[in-house]
Amino acid sequence: MERDRADAGTALTLLPRLLFQVLLHVLFEHAVGYALLALKEVEEISLLLPQVEECVLNLGKFHNIVRLVAFCPFASSQVALENANAVSEGVVHEDLRLLLETHLPSKKKKVLLGVGDPKIGAAIQEELGYTCQTGGVIAEILRGVRLHFHNLVKGLTDVSACKAQLGLGHSYSRAKVKFNVNRVDNMIIQSISLLDQLDKDINTFSMRVREWYGYHFPELVKIINDNATYCRLAQFIGNRRELNEEKLEKLEELTMDGAKAKAILDASRSSMGMDISAIDLINIESFSNRVVSLSEYRQSLHTYLRSKMSQVAPSLSALIGEAVGARLIAHAGSLTNLAKYPASTVQILGAEKALFRALKTRGNTPKYGLIFHSTFIGRAAAKNKGRISRYLANKCSIASRIDCFSEVPTSVFGEKLREQVEERLSFYETGIFPRKNLQVMKEAMVQAEEAAAEITRKLEKQEKKRLKKEKKRLAAIALASPENSTSTPEECEEISERPKKKKKQKLQEAPQENGMEEPPVSLAKPKKKKAFSKEELISSDLEETAGSGSLPKRKKSFPKEEPVSDPEEAENRSVPKKKRKFKEELLSSGPEEAASSKSSSSKKKKKLQKLSQGD
């Protein structure tokens, strides 16, 4: 140990001179922001000593070594998450670029930047041109900065720094877990595991039902082989003595075979089973019902698995089937891990114990693992099983990579790869040469482009339908709200203007008899007419006949009564509107009609006199 330390000391004696020639800065990434620090004194040899480690732990002594040059806080938690993702991927974010370009010296050759992550150091050196260093001195300095960071930055407390770290950690983990919801392979792993477990449990429970109900009806076991059908029949039959011809149709529906239904009916009449109590039958029926419900759930789970495989790995499921493809994904851990595996690993995936046992005993290694459950290996001859399994593993590896890295999932490549495996099988049997892979992949590319275009069209149509439904829903909500709130001000103005326009049209379309238009009438409420007695009417008629030569012109309606100097105007005011109209008609008529008007007026006088005498 002493010799190694002496060699390290002699090798690093030149480093302090180099570090004094260049200015050493340290970049520290925290949950609240980026910090750029400068080192005042550096001796890398002495940093290996325990005294200097104590100096890093002491805040007062640490301040003598390090000073804060600049601090760039994050604007929000979203910005902090973006910067954390960029640092983890080795990408220089715009915030980090701005900080380094602003606060580091312009002469890049004299600057040495210390960073904690080699990936971000390589990215900074490539993009910005600053020399970066990791480990050694930098690791010790960053340890001290991490310990005393809340004391180096003004206004930052230890509690707030811990809260920021906790929040960023949660959001970073959530962002790593959160992928495309429709293409998550975790659901496939869980569903195939549950499917295998259900198969085992249903087999165990069915054997329990067979053994339990076999005490009462042992002949049914030999007639019915399917576990789910046996449980349904045990639930339906119950006591075998109650089975008769009336239940034969139902038996045929359950067994899907008339001969088996007839055999069950005959066996129930001559069965050698023991009698069973009612309470035992109730327990058998309830347990059979549970097994039947489990088998039905198993069918629905298998349908769900097929739909998820068509979304996540359509090519792999088209090549070897949904169940085998799901088992490969579950065994690898994820679709990405399966895509990273070489074809030789995919070939023996699931046969690790046999492989290591063969390596240990120097025996024959296994030829296939989980892919043995596909139909291709079973159809091949014994001498060709290894060859076809190797070829199938190669195609499975290609299909998994296509599914993992393609943007639009399609089963075209899987179908083409399946055709290639079929051609290879026929080549082993008949000797007909299969098509070349280049030709098949060209055809697959053309069909895949067409399929992708069709999928995009369907997605666009679905989006349009969704928008239409959303518009209809909003319109229904708007109609459901009160009419006053929904009516716009323009509609209110149109409604208020309609009656006014009608009134104006009526007034304009009503000309006088002499062809002249009447003066504009005010829209105010008309005043009530005064009631006149018979004597006033008679006197007014007499005065009209006397002064028919000089009648005054009609004037506009007077809103207020004013004192009038002319007696004729006062007379006209006292006369009602009908009388005024009559006078205007007389004026409008010519001199020929004057005589006739006089004769008619004389007749009216006589009538009025008779009326007055009668009163």
UniProtKB/TrEMBL annotation:
Compartments, as annotated in UniProt: Nucleus, Nucleolus
GO molecular function: snoRNA binding
Record-linked InterPro entries: Nop56/Nop58 (IPR045056), NOP58/56_N (IPR012974), Nop_C (IPR042239), Nop_dom (IPR002687), Nop_dom_sf (IPR036070), NOSIC (IPR012976)
Classification via Pfam families: Nop, NOP5NT
Location (main, coarse): nucleus
Gene Ontology BP term (one): ribosome biogenesis
Coiled coil: 438-477
UniProt KW Coiled coil keyword: yes
Domain (Nop): residue spans on this chain: 312-430
PROSITE patterns xrefs: NOP (PS51358)
Location of the region described as Disordered in the Swiss-Prot/TrEMBL record: 478-615
Lineage: superkingdom: Eukaryota
Job description of the protein: Involved in the early to middle stages of 60S ribosomal subunit biogenesis. Required for the biogenesis of box C/D snoRNAs such U3, U8 and U14 snoRNAs. Part of the small subunit (SSU) processome, first precursor of the small eukaryotic ribosomal subunit. During the assembly of the SSU processome in the nucleolus, many ribosome biogenesis factors, an RNA chaperone and ribosomal proteins associate with the nascent pre-rRNA and work in concert to generate RNA folding, modifications, rearrangements and cleavage as well as targeted degradation of pre-ribosomal RNA by the RNA exosome.
Subunit structure: Part of a large pre-ribosomal ribonucleoprotein (RNP) complex, that consists of at least 62 ribosomal proteins, 45 nonribosomal proteins and both pre-rRNA and mature rRNA species. Within this complex directly interacts with TCOF1 in an RNA-independent manner. Core component of box C/D small nucleolar ribonucleoprotein (snoRNP) particles; the core proteins SNU13, NOP56, NOP58 and FBL or FBLL1 assemble stepwise onto the snoRNA. Interacts with NOP1 and NOP58. Interacts with NUFIP1, RUVBL1 and RUVBL2; RUVBL1:RUVBL2 seem to bridge the association of NOP56 with NUFIP1.
Protein name: Nucleolar protein 56
Species of origin: Pteropus alecto (Black flying fox)
